[in-house]
Amino acid sequence: MCPLVDSYGRKINYLRLSVTDRCNFRCMYCLPEDGIPKVDHHDILSYEELLLLACSVVPLGIEKIRVTGGEPLVRNGIVRFLSDLSKIPGLRQLVLTTNGALLEEMAQRLREAGVQRLNISLDSLRPDTFASITRCGRLEKVLAGIRAAEEAGFPIKINVVAMRGVNDEEIVDFAEWTLEKPYAVRFIEYMPTRGEEIWQSRVISGEAILARIKERFPLQPVVRGEMAGPSRDYKIPGAAGSIGVITPISGHFCEECNRIRVTSQGMAKNCLFADSETDLKPLLREGNVEKLQHFLKRVVIAKPGKHLISYGNNNHAPFDMSRVGG
Prior knowledge:
The chain is α/β, with parallel strands linked by helices. It has a single domain (4-324), classed as Aldolase class I (TIM Barrel, Alpha-Beta Barrel), CATH 3.20.20. 28% of the residues lie in helices and 18% in strands. The strands form 2 sheets. Strands 9-10-11-8-7-6-5-4-3-12-13-14 form a 12-stranded mixed β-sheet. Strands 1-2 form a two-stranded antiparallel sheet. α1 (47-57) packs across α9 (289-301), α2 runs parallel beside α3 (103-113) and α3 (103-113) runs parallel beside α5 (139-151).
């Protein structure tokens, strides 16, 4: 297996693969309240095209694929597609990001299909706040889904977008949850994807998050695994689970970035905040694997050294997170 290496010497072994831009929630930082314009069916990659893409990148050195949306579980046929992905020789990790609303019915089937781990987005443990953030979600449904996933044997990560004045009062509540539950709760700094003028007022830094937790609990660092993501992880001594912070604004982790993204419309992005994209759809529909691999290598080589988003700078074109797979 020949590793994909960018011009900065980073080994790229992780693909985030979006299967849909549709979602059954309307989270305030991800989508407009009235949703997004419907994309023509022909413009969305078919499962055959998505599978061809996956089968083309694994021989190049991609070892981990994360299936995302929108909400991936709303797409018909998703379980069979995941089963097909899990059988690709050389793929070491198949993981899924979901809002959890459909897990109660689907968790066991996902496990049987070969999905190894779930990342579940959950921004509040309070029903009213949860409903306000998601605009249409029911907390009890997501909690039931998390229980079903745990019963199915999934290792579970909980992703919490920390937002000042919205859910930051719950930071310690989430930390306390890990005392009894074997979940990896990860707090993510709010990112200015949708072009808000006052986005800085929403950001609570990773250091501030940890400081709030330390006022209540001691924390000890956790050694990261071989294919761990950008989270800095900690544990309350004796707790069943762990706590992490992901700091795309206050502490860039770009020098360790090992991923590329492909949207449900076949657009390859080498950075979440990159304004340029490479359209892979014609190559996938042509079925020319060698040419497709050549273009993917070019996407990797062009990967920037770092994104330029910081507290004082937001020079990127606004986008809906659901369109690029989170």
